[in-house]
Every structure is written in C-alpha cells, then in structure tokens.
C-alpha cells in the first residue's frame, strides 16, 4: 500500500485549523442571524417609550441564541454606567464583523445626532436581514455550480480525449 506521507502530514496540519475556522465562522454567522431580531426588538421597546438603557436591560432576558451572551454583556455594561453609544461600540468590536459594524455605526451616529432612533433601528435591522439573505442566496447559487462541476468532473478526461481526437481529424483533413 502506497501512502503519501507528505499529503498525510499536510492533512494533519491543516485539519485542526480548518475545524477551528469552521466553528468560528458558524458562531459569527449565528450571531449575525440573530442581530436583526435584536435591533427590531430594540426599536419596538424604543417606540414603546423606554430608553435605550432600559430596553437593552429588558432584552437581556430575551432569547437571541448565540447573541445572548453579548446582549447580557451590554446590559451589564449599561448597569455599570457605560454610555449607550460606547456599549454599542464595544459590542461591534466584540463581534467584529462588517455587518454589525455597519449597523452599529449607523445607530451610533443617529444616537449622537438625536434623530428618530427607532426608524434607524428598523432600517438597520431590515438592511442586516437583507444582507444575510443575499449572502445565503449567493452561497446557494455557488453551491449549485460546484455540484455541477463535481458531477461533470469524471467525464472530463473522456471529453478532452474526444475533443483532441476531433481536432486531430480536422487538422488531417485540411
């Protein structure tokens, strides 16, 4: 039995890192999936007349899946007296994804400007939800292309032999 020791060593080196990276990406994806729900609920509490600090404290008891720990941290930071804008910035730094950073910067600017924050929150939530939908659609589309490639891959050698044979026949005839 022939074993390619270099290939096996390469696999042993890459596999743990790829498993770790996959877990990290799944955690990020799970957080981003729940983020629009959190923003929508925050907007509803704001529309109901609660301040942002009370709303975040109340939402800490809600269920947001992978986002639960972050919402509880936000609630704890607010209870320690950290300003709402700073809490949002710390949250964006913890999650550290472009989707969350974009929404948080939009909300922070609206909070500083004193605009109608509930509308900004709803807009940020719908924008985040739409971005996640488009990412999923792009992934599904690329998956179908990859599936076609894997299905057609076994036929590649026969195809290239047939094309080479046809080209050689064409060249001989001219």
Describe the structure.
The chain is an all-alpha fold and 174 residues long. It has helices spanning 5-47, 52-59, 68-79, 84-95, 98-113, 117-152, 156-173. α1 (5-47) packs antiparallel against α6, α3 (68-79) packs antiparallel against α4 and α5 (98-113) runs antiparallel to α6 (117-152).
| Cα separation of the termini | 49 Å
- Unreliable sequence segments: none
Number of strands: 0
Indicate the overall shape: elongated
SSE pattern: HHHHHHH
Provide the β-strand percentage band: under 5%
- Alpha-carbon Rg, integer: 26 Å
- Report the major sheet: none
Helix content: over 70%
User: With helices defined by DSSP (H or I, 4 residues minimum), what is the helix count?
Assistant: 7
Structural class: mainly alpha
Mean pLDDT: 83
Short structural description:
The protein contains 7 helices and no strands. The protein has 174 residues and is an all-alpha fold.
